[in-house]
Amino acid sequence: MSSSASIPVGDLTAMHPGVVSAIDWHKFAANEARRLREFGLDEGVEVELLQPSGWLGGPMSLRIGRMTVALRKHVGDAIHVVQAA
Amino acid sequence: MEMTPLIALVGNPNAGKSALFNALTGARQKVGNYPGVTVERHSGRMALNDGRPVELVDLPGTYSLDPSSPDEQVTRDVVLGRQEGERLPDALIVVADATNLENHLRFVLQLRALGRPMVLALNMIDMATRDGLTIDIDKLSQALGVPVVATVAVRKRGLDALKDAVAGLAGAADKAMPVLDADITHFQREARRIAAQAIVEQPRSRIFTRQLDRVVLHPVLGPLILLGILFTMFQAVFSWSEAPIGWIEGFQGWLAETATATLPDNFLRDLLVEGVINGVGSVVVFLPQIVILFFFILILEASGYMVRAAFLMDRLMAGVGLSGRSFIPLLSSFACAIPGIMAARSIDDPRERLTTILIAPLMTCSARLPVYAVIIGAFIPARSVGPGVGLQGLVLLALYLTGIAGAVLAALVLRRTATKGAGGGFMMEMPRYQLPSIRDVAIGLWQRAYVFLRRAGTIIMGVTVVLWVLTSYPVAPEGQKQSEYSVAGRIASGLEVVLRPIGFNHEISLAVIPAMAAREVAVSALETVYSIDAEDEEAGAQALGTQLSARWSLPTALAFLAWFVFAPQCLSTIAVARRETNGWKWPTVMIAYLFALAYVAAGLTFWTAKALGL
Question: Which CATH class is domain A7-83?
Answer without folding.
Answer: mainly beta
